[in-house]
Amino acid sequence: MACLATVGACTVLSSCSGLIYDGEGDCDPYYKVRFRYDWNMKFADAFPNEVLDVTLYVVDDNTGKVVWQKRESGEALQSEGYMMDVPVGPGTYSLVAWCGEGHRTSFSVDESDVKTELMCHLAVGDSDESGLHVKEDLNRLYHGTLEGQDFPDTQGTHIYTVPLKKNTNDVHVVLQHLSGDLVDASKFSFEISDANAHMAWNNELCSDNPVFYHAWNVMQGSAGLDTGTRAITSMSAAVADLTVGRLHEDSATRLNVRNDKGETVISVPLIEYFLLVKGHYRQMADQEYLDRQDDYNLVFFLDEDDRWINSHIYINSWHVVLQQEDIK
């Protein structure tokens, strides 16, 4: 009898065309979802290191309704080969994921069983007649979709991979005097304006309500300036850190720096300037570049009156020489 049982077990295993994981002792279909975040400038999967929280929504394509959802967070996501079990019946589904610790803190996702209502919104800041003002660092937010997936009624384990894009961006602004004189950081305020507070289920921006991101950190510092000789001159600098939501190629995203008199000393269209320095990625589509890049450094040089010398700017170490018509 023992030999028959053994032979029977072998027969079951050999008849299953798919791979059987621990705890899956029969040939029913099993569905698993993994997440991949390689939509970055290194083209390498950073999911285990960066994404600490995920919520997955499984949508029935026939009805547009969410039939199952689950949130997982913590160490489980960092384990090698992490996948989420999805216990649904066979059918055709779309997968929608809002991820990162930001999707439950700095942002919020609407509770709904309808796919088109799975919108994500900025959940921080104060509103006034001009718009929403955000004055804090935003926790990281990621989004992913995988549409029209067949979950077959065939034995074995079926694995689906949801690609993620990062929706939060860090912007660092440095002000320096060409003379090397002290730049008093307390004399300046920094703000980025956009209209990206609301994202649809497919990650499209879906509102034109203005958002003003203010620097959450401003400090005095020093930085080296390559003068073209072998010497590197150390210069005083004012440094501001801002975090903003998703950047879009068609958005009128703008950086404004004002002095303590309320006067605007720098005002530049950020999307246009960021796209000037695609460098080796010149052939990459503009929106893909903005989705992959998530960290921007800008260096402006001031004259003796604390005004921007608007003939050049450094962006992510690229020296951009500007013509007067470039400044709008």
The ordered H/E elements are HEHEEEEEEEEEEEEEEEEEEHHEEE
Strand order of the biggest β-sheet: 3-2-5-10-11-1-4
- The geometry reads as elongated
Please count the helical segments: 4
N- to C-terminal distance: 86 Å
Biggest sheet, in brief? 7 strands, mixed
Radius of gyration: 25 Å
Helix content: under 10%
For the secondary structure, the number of strands is: 22
Low-confidence stretches: 1-15
Q: Give the rounded overall mean pLDDT.
A: 88
Multimeric state: single chain
Range of strand content: 35-45%
Structural class: mainly beta
How would you concisely characterize the structure shown here?
The chain is built from four helices and 22 strands.
Please tell me about this protein's structure.
This protein is 9% helix and 44% strand. It has helices at residues 2-14, 47-50, 270-276, 286-292; strands at residues 29-36, 53-60, 65-73, 84-85, 91-99, 107-109, 120-122, 126-128, 131-134, 142-151, 156-166, 169-177, 188-194, 198-199, 211-214, 217-226, 232-244, 254-259, 264-269, 295-302, 312-315, 318-321. The N and C termini lie far apart (86 Å). The model is unreliable at 1-15 (pLDDT under 50).
Strand and helix layout:
Blueprint: H1 2-14, E1 29-36, H2 47-50, E2 53-60, E3 65-73, E4 84-85, E5 91-99, E6 107-109, E7 120-122, E8 126-128, E9 131-134, E10 142-151, E11 156-166, E12 169-177, E13 188-194, E14 198-199, E15 211-214, E16 217-226, E17 232-244, E18 254-259, E19 264-269, H3 270-276, H4 286-292, E20 295-302, E21 312-315, E22 318-321
Parallel strand pairs: 1-11, 9-15, 12-20
Antiparallel strand pairs: 1-4, 2-3, 2-5, 5-10, 6-7, 7-14, 8-9, 10-11, 12-17, 13-15, 13-18, 16-17, 18-19, 20-21, 21-22
